[in-house]
Amino acid sequence: MTEIASTCPPWLDRFRAEAPRLPVPPMFEPAPGARAAAVLILFGEGPDGPDVLLTERAATLSKHAGQPAFPGGRIDPGDDGPVAAALREAWEEAGVEPSGVDVLCTLPELYLSHSRHRVTPVAGWWREPSEVAPGHPGEVALVARVPIADLADPANRLTVRHPSGIKMGPAFRAGGMLVWGFTAAVLTQVLVAGGWDRPWDASRVEDLPPDVLSLASRG
Question: Which of 87, 88, 116, 129 could form a disulfide with 98 if both were Cys (CB 3.0 to 4.6 A apart)?
Fold first, then answer.
């Protein structure tokens, strides 16, 4: 899939210009020997305005169980790089038809130390939205189009911490999910890059719920 910038709506212009040069936080600096992966940050125009597609991993998985995520996964040998992998995974996980997606840009590579993956976020414009639903019930529990306005709403933003007291970063309550971890960190940068960020109270800190901690402890 090639980049087709002309079809992109004006509200994505700033994001498309800023996203490729976003700074990489020190904790996400790529490391040698990590496995290559890609995720799709898919923007659309939904019934409630501009939105982004998120999934929730199935609670039965041994890794990343119950966690919110962008569609994505490991880059397979048959994939033609991160763009092809991100589009393939979005089709397999959520039913996103690749022909309806125009690729805007790729973001700087990020390293996930927990799973030893180096992840390339691929941003796309959902020119022709398709019906979405969990493609693999054993892997994906939920697919949601989450309005950007809901993500930017200060009432939906918080900082989460481990019950031990260690802060684990920003989080969002949106789309019926508690979005935290890697996905929340990327969404925070997405809001800034797009000019959608609004001041919010970072001192609002909540412990991760016990059920979330239990699922996360699997790996």
Answer: 87
List pLDDT tens digits, range 34-44: 899 999 999 99
Beta bridge partners of 43: 52, 125
CA 22 to chain centre: 15
Burial class (CB in 10 A: 0-12, 13-18, 19+), 45: middle
Q: Give the pLDDT confidence score for residue 64 in this predicted structure.
A: 54
Distances in Å between the Cα of 4 and the Cα atoms of 44, 84, 105, 125, 149 are 15, 15, 10, 9, 25
Q: Is 121 strand, coil or helix?
A: strand
Closest CA to 83 of 52, 68, 104, 100: 104
Q: What percent of the chain has pLDDT over 70?
A: 90
Q: Model-level pTM?
A: 0.92
Q: Report d(CA 84, CA 38) in Å as an integer.
A: 9
